Amino acid sequence: MNPTRTQLLALCAVGLVVLLTLGVLAGVFGSVSPATDLAPGDDRPDDPATSETIGYVEGYWYDDDLPIDDRDDATIEEAEFESVVYRSMARVEHLRELPFEDSVDVEVISREEFQAEEDDVFGTVTDEQRFQQNVNYEALLMVDRHTEIEDETDALFGDTVGGYYDLTTNEVVVVAEDPDEPETDEVILGHELLHALQDQHFDLTSYDRETIDREAGKNGLIEGDAVWIEEAYGERCGEEWACLEPTDQPQPPGEFNWGLYLILIQPYDDGPDYIESLLTADGWSAVNDAYDEPPTTSSEVIRPGEDRNFTTVEVTDRSEETWQPFEVDEEPATETVGEVGMVSMFAAGSIDGNQPAIIDRESLTGSEGGPVVDLEYDQPYTDGWAGDELAVYVPDDAETSDERLEESAFVWKSEWMSAADAEQFADAYRELLERHGGLPVEDRADTYELEGDFPGTYDIDQAGERVTIVRTPDADDIEAVYDGSWTANETT
């Protein structure tokens, strides 16, 4: 039996097995071509066509037997690989009730080749983008001042990536220890082939990775679809179907950033439930229709089907001449963290014992110990989220990137469904600052001074349904960065 999502997430407690299926950094839009034949049982056509017949690809039906099925391991030779790919494509079609329009090339490369090309796979960032990301994750108290976000990401993926879908070449790439005789995980292959199927029908290249929150929302649809199929595929292996299963699993990375992990894994965890809600409503046609209007927030995936009003939040520039908004591509650098980022911020330390947490492990995972499975992102500290924006500021006289980072500031404004929701979030952020060693600043209410990993002065102002957090190098800079952010809370 191949691993289900729960088993995969259990393995993720010590590694990132589910992130073997990270093939979609992409987007959604387009129309679905209707299938002409579902080919159930004896109703199969005499002369099937790959692009028109569901469950049939290039001479192979989804339930065909292959000579390799009787082997004890998943090692296959190059001449046998094509038949495995075609049958897996047919199985994905059968489960997804959608035909491939074209064949999908599958390339096998060595891990050394993958590591050499890793920057091309995950994309490169400019110095400006890297700086913005570092400040963003400082605001979330996830990546400290002395650590590069790229280093944390590299540690997160480690050496565990086993495959991905390449949007530029429209091919699935399998990463193997021995590319001449690769061990093939057929369920993971099916996941990546599903991304190719999505791309053919919905054009994943149109996906715009605008913010953390929007990316999590759209990935809830895209990865949720792929993981749902992956689970269905795995459930049939060993019972209805003979499947290739590798004998060895990738080794987990030694240490990684649990906050980043929780952000990345959320679409894989909540996405299948989101897909299930669409299937319950109107079958696969509802899922297909969702690609025309995909989720724009992580909240929509965390609570599928729940009707909520969200707000577009904008940080108005109130800085003095000595400070200026930091720009990326000649535009102010802003980010929407969303509910996924806030939950991950409050919960990361519940798994990483070296960091403080507000959401405890039992609330996040359902148990005080054991594997990290069935994560719960619907949390009381953040469930009233309506919108947020985080803007980065730098001093006007900073000349080097190191100076900019040391003297950087941010303004993080969030809107909530009610004043009570806003107060609950503000209180939780204050408590997290205190657990990181933050000390109250004299003569200012709700203002804390931190040293060490996340140095600076943090001011928290709640006014009705709005919370504004300003972080500056010291207390004297607060008004200069965001005039009026704390005066309403000034002690008398």
Most strands sheet:
8 strands, antiparallel
Uncertain residue segments: 1-40, 485-492
- Globally, the shape reads elongated
Helical fraction equals 25-40%
**Span between N and C termini?**
67 Å
Count of alpha/pi helices: 15
SSE arrangement, N to C = HEEHEHHHHEEHHHHEEEEHHEHEHEEEEH
Properties at a glance:
492 residues, alpha+beta, 2 domains, 8-stranded antiparallel β-sheet, 3-stranded mixed β-sheet, 15 helices, disordered N terminus
Characterise this structure.
With 492 residues, the protein is of the alpha+beta class. The chain folds into two domains: 5-302, no CATH class; 323-489, no CATH class. 38% of the residues lie in helices and 14% in strands. It is built from 15 helices and 15 strands. It has helices spanning 5-11, 78-96, 111-116, 118-122, 127-139, 149-157, 186-202, 212-236, 258-290, 298-302, 338-351, 361-365, 401-406, 419-435, 478-481, and strands at 56-57, 60-61, 105-110, 163-166, 171-176, 323-325, 327-328, 331-332, 334-335, 385-395, 409-416, 439-440, 447-450, 456-463, 466-472. Strands 6, 9, 10, 11, 12, 13, 14 and 15 form an eight-stranded antiparallel β-sheet that branches. Strand 7 and strand 8 (331-332) form a beta hairpin. The longest helix has 33 residues, at 258-290.
